[in-house]
Design brief:
Elements lengths: L6 E2 L13 H10 L3 E2 L1 H11 L4 E4 L6 H12 L13 E4 L3 H15 L8 E4 L5 H7 L5 E4 L1 H9 L10 E4 L2 H6 L3 H9 L6 E6 L4 H10 L4 E4 L10 E7 L5 H11 L5 E4 L3 H13 L4 E4 L5 H12 L5 E4 L14 E4 L6 H8 L9 E7 L4 H11 L4 E4 L9
Parallel strand pairs: 3-8, 3-9, 4-6, 4-7, 5-6, 7-8, 10-15, 10-16, 11-13, 11-14, 12-13, 14-15
Antiparallel strand pairs: 1-2
Helix pairs in contact: 2-3, 3-4, 6-8, 13-14
Length: about 400
Amino acid sequence: MSCLRYFTTHQSLTKMSLGLSPYLRKALAEEGFSKPFPIQQMTIPAILEHKDILCIAPTGSGKTAGYVLPILMNLEGKTDTKNRHVNVLVLVPTRELAMQVNAVFEQFGAYVPFRFKSLAVYGGASINTQMIAMIYVNVLVATPGRLLELVASKAVHLSEISTLVLDEADKLLNLGFKEEVYKVLALLPKKRQNLLFSATLSPDVQHMEQLLLHEPHVIQLAQEIENVDLIQQQAYLVSDEKKGPLLRYLIKQKEMQQVLVFTSSVYQADLVADKLNKNGIEARAIHSQKSQGARTDALHHFKTGKLRVLVATDLLSRGIDIAFLPYVINYELPRSPKDFVHRIGRTGRAENPGEAITFITTEDEHHFKVIQKKMKKQVDVISAEDIDLQGF
């Protein structure tokens, strides 16, 4: 199910060939998806031609399939490398993104007519288990710190990397990984294909572009701030003490079966999830202080529809990637308009509509006006005083 957002259905198969091999076209057809999104139309042919890529595009635009498919095709006849010498390296900023990207490689990799193995490695999990799993890996999806640990342990060698992907490069370079990324780059062979994907063209990304890319094929799609029209938005003016009852009222009144709730602190995330559970609404919190196992389990249950409410902090506003998420609720406002857009951008993705609801207090009103101005979108504000919250 991880690839469902990448192609739309009921289109002629010839429209999505883009130079892909028959086995990959068959993979897409068997998944029931045949029309590529714009980012795939632009990236797939260029990557197949072994060009460097600079792609500035919002999350949720289908970029992962845009590089996974041609990378798999380019690997044909080249995966018979020495053990622990990987062919392709994908650097990502978070554990969640590492797992998501690896899942796409595994899904399409199951169709290739040659030996292929991918693996995701990241901190917060057993390094010994990852070292054992490194046997005959072709595509390694990694966070920088854990990768360097594995290199130091001689569990993996990077001297035969033919393609490097930096995914969510702006976030990768903004989360304190910059020094580690440059250490990784120093270990790679000079001759290779470089693919750089980013939501924004920050100064750090521009510097990385100049350092890495040779005559790149440049792709720039509309940013998330321009895509909020896909999202139906409402805001509720509510006091702090009535936020909990209002949240429970909306979940029940709208019969929400899959809703992502954002808070601004770990403490509040745990508190909101606890209150929901006590009122008969199954919920779990996911944040940086949860173990990797707990985070993975909660995210899996939420994605598969077994968990009704997931309460998250801004750490995961980009990391949660679900094809058809119907509802996002901002229990508290984030600090910046950009974070607000990242939050609500978990819904209304890749041509699928969604609904975003925001709670604001009287103290938040000015900040919310700034957010609306930055989004260039006016949001209707409803007074919670007019709602009977008795019993919620």
